[in-house]
Amino acid sequence: MLNKITYFLLYSWMLVHALLPFRLLYILSDILYLFVYKIFGYRLKVVRENLKNSFPDKTDKQLAQIEKDFYHNFCDYFVETIKLLHISNEEMQKRFVFKNIDLVKDLMKDGNSALMYLGHYGNWEWVPSITLLMGNDVMTGDIYRPLKNKAVDDIFLKIRSRFGAVNIPKNNTLRAIVRMRQSGKKVLIGFMSDQTPSKGNIHYWTKFMNQDTAVFTGVERIAKTTGFSVVYLDVKKISRGRYEGECRLISEKPKEEPENVITEKYIRAMEETILRNPAYWLWTHKRWKYKKKDFTEAG
What we know:
Layout: H1 2-18, H2 22-39, H3 44-54, H4 60-83, H5 89-95, E1 96-99, H6 101-107, E2 114-118, E3 138-144, H7 150-160, E4 166-169, H8 173-182, E5 186-192, E6 205-208, E7 211-214, H9 218-226, E8 229-239, E9 242-251, H10 261-276, H11 292-298
Parallel strand pairs: 1-9, 2-5, 2-8, 3-4, 3-5
Antiparallel strand pairs: 6-7, 8-9
Helix pairs in contact: 1-7, 2-4
C-alpha cells in the first residue's frame, strides 16, 4: 500500500512538471542546479576524484569548468527525463536525431538482429525513441538494473517504455532476448555498459580514461552466443534539449572476432565520446571503486 501511495504522489508530481514547456523546465533545472551542486554538493567528492584521475594534465580551472558544466547537464537530464511523461512522438524525433540509422537496418535486412552499445552520456533516457524509426517487424528493448525503491522503479519503467521498448532486468538478459527472437521478429537491444561490473562479474581489465578499469564483457558474450551484430551509438549534445546519436559499426560477425575485441572497440568508442565533451558523462558514479592490483594479488 505504501508503495502505491508513493507511486501515485511521485507520478502526479512528475506529470504536472511534464506538462510544462521546455523553457520553464530549464528554469527549473537552473534552480535545481543551485541546490544539487552549490548547496548540497551531491556526490561532489566522487565527481572531483573521477575528474582529477581521468584528466591529470588539466588545470584546476579546467576541471572546475567541467565540473560545473556536468552539474548543469545532470539537472537538464533530470527535467528532460520527466518531460518524457508528456511529449509527442513528433517533438521527440526533432529533439533526438539518429544518424546513420540505415546501418542498423541494413544489418537486420536478412532477418538478423543487433545489440547496441551506449553509455550514460547526454540523455540516455531519450535513446529508446529509436523505436519510432524501426519497423513493426523489429522489437526493441533495453537492459536495466532494478532500483531498490519499487515506486521509483515502476515510474522509470513507465518512462523507459514510453516509445514501446521492452525493459529487461539485467539478471534475465539472455533468456529474455531468446524469447523475443523466438517471437519471429528481429530484435534491437540497448546496453549501457560504461559502469562498474559487480565484483563477481569482473573478467576483463583495460585502460579507460587514464585508469585501469574493470569492464562488462556480457554484451560480447551475448553477441557471440546469438550471432547478433553489434553497433555503438555515439551521442552528441547539440544544445539544451537537442541531441544526435550516430550509429557506428562495432562488429557485423561477432562470432568471428577474437576474444575481447568487441569489448575493446566499445571502450575506445565510449572514451572518444567522453573526451569530445567530458561534461556530459555521468561522473557521479563510483566507476573505479575496484582496483586491478587487488584482483591480481587475490589471483
